[in-house]
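We modelled the chain as a single entity of 251 amino acids. Its sequence is:
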Amino acid sequence: MSEPKVRSQTASALDKSSVARYLQLASLFRKWIETGTWAVGAQIPTVEMLAKECGVAGMTIRQALDILEKEGLIQRFRAKGTFVRQKPSRDLWCEVQTDWNGLLMSRSNADIFILSDVADQTLDQDSHEVGKVAPAYRQLRRLHKRAGVPFLLADVFVDERLRGLIPEENYSRTTAMRLVADLPGVTITDARQILTIDSADLETATLLDIALSDPIAKVQRLAVDASGTLILVANGLYRGDMVRIDMKLIK
């Protein structure tokens, strides 16, 4: 039975973070299962051993293991111990498109839920390398799901002056770029997509139903009109376990 030395790896983070320790440990243990540190079928260290190594109470370890058990990753047996049952599932069905036509396509079998809708929001010009910011934006927070499973959390900012041109139903039906792509009298002269990799904070993890600090793909999409105005800013957070990025290099 392996006994990973976690104190040196986690004690500092556990001491400094404001997030509950059992959530941090659940995320760490989940990562060990995923990477094979705790192999499928293997017995994991006892609660007492983990508590000593992590420098936490046994109850904290039990709370972390309770989460993994509910996820079906481990299985406990009376008088035998706790064993790894399976790795976290990864369904890489969500493809981040890298061409203009792809950005306009809605994903099949996906639903968009509007979590908030706020008028007259402003953006910082210094935070955007292309276009000049509009005087005000309509900000929508949207959660995208497939078969009830969330895969994308996005904050979409649309130039308030375009409000009357966009049918209301489109906000819960179309991609962010599609919202402004076909508007009468509006020409998109520049469009950008910027991708970075990050880890989920507590709010993002909760809304996307993933573990704290799980990997996420941060995708920012920008659209500039003929006047040089930044008419759309979409900041999306994709679940790392569902996203795939394909880039065709040769036609």
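As a brief sanity check on the tokenised model: The chain has two domains: 7-84, 94-245. The mean pLDDT is 84.
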